[in-house]
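Form 7-S
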Amino acid sequence: MSSAAPRVTGQDHSGPDHLWSVEEHLEDILATVRPLEPIELHLLDAQGCVLVEDITVPVSLPPFDNSSMDGYAVRVADVAGASEEFPAALEVVGDVAAGQAELLHVGPGQAARIMTGAPLPPGAETVVPVEWTDGGLGEGPVRGMRARSLGPEGATGHVHVYRPAEARAHVRAKGSDVKAGDRALEAGTILGPPQIGLLAAIGRGTVRVRPRPRVVVLSTGSELVQPDAELGTGQIYDSNSFALTAAARDAGAIAYRVGAVADDAETLRSTIEDQLVRADLMVTTGGVSVGAYDVVKEALSHVADEDEAGSGIEFRKLAMQPGKPQGFGSIGPDHTPLLALPGNPVSSYVSFELFVRPAIRALMGLPDVHRPTTRATLAADRALTSPKGRRQFLRGTYDDGRVTPVGGAGSHLVAALAHADALIVVPEDTESVEPGAEVEVVLLG
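Output:
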């Protein structure tokens, strides 16, 4: 859970018509969302979590010189000058397999059949790939070795080598990947599959991390029905909870979707209270504007009580489009952060990217919580217009320094959002952006 109750207001902004800036609202959120406490987890349970300690390599990788090929371990001098016309004939003294404890000794005029990953035996200086030999069959170059179970005699006898090999050819040197004492991973690293593999390779079965935040996503509206259900008059499918749950998972959280709650304040309060047990962060969508049925605002405007000092949700108007109405605060005995987003699909998703995703990343303990941004040339047929005093976020597609708007400015245009991979940012003091102008772009993918 969050370790501190949210500071709901960062400055004294009085009056119901005050417009908060995007920066002010985000600053308040990030100032109050604390990283989750570290825990020790088994490797697979730690996937997607953030390391809280540097990891030092206890044993070199690889831990011994080993072969990178199936072939023969030999001395360099014994294959010098070897060719197909004048091959080097060597005595095969046995097999060296991966995981083999007792190693053969390779002396002058000898070779050991060696498998990929097997330790380089004493006396051997290099590895000759099996394709450079007759495989002990005396019938010219071969393409591979027969399985030991099918041809056990291949581990003895003689082999003809048709090409020379330099010292330590096809040999993976001890410590060539990482050496004992090296820093394998830094604190702050997100553990993905390659990092999990590295930890296992150096013998770490558990690791200390900040857990993935648990995010509960809840949509409101009596008009919402589950996908696959039949639509009635005046009804629409609930898309926001699916989009935001997926977005929370994409941000690194363990996200739970709650079915849409009807426009009833008591039902909403009860549902939120029931969900707090599994939430490090709660996200609601819908019901935060000024309508008669804006149930989130009705239900949460006065949730604070004397037993939960510091809790409470404040609803604000932001100088942005889409996403003007927003709510933020904490709820419950653990002061669980709650972000209340508007209900229009584009408004809710843009709000998620600007406010919820950074909060999730902050809970994870990451130093950089923001999407990457860049500058791009606007590729459009006509000028983009934007209301004065509002920071507008338009959907777009970004490609090699150019960004093209997708769809219009309407906050309900979810189809256009599905084709966008960037947000075009139009500043508050800009009312028109001409084609060819340079604009700020938030990269979503």
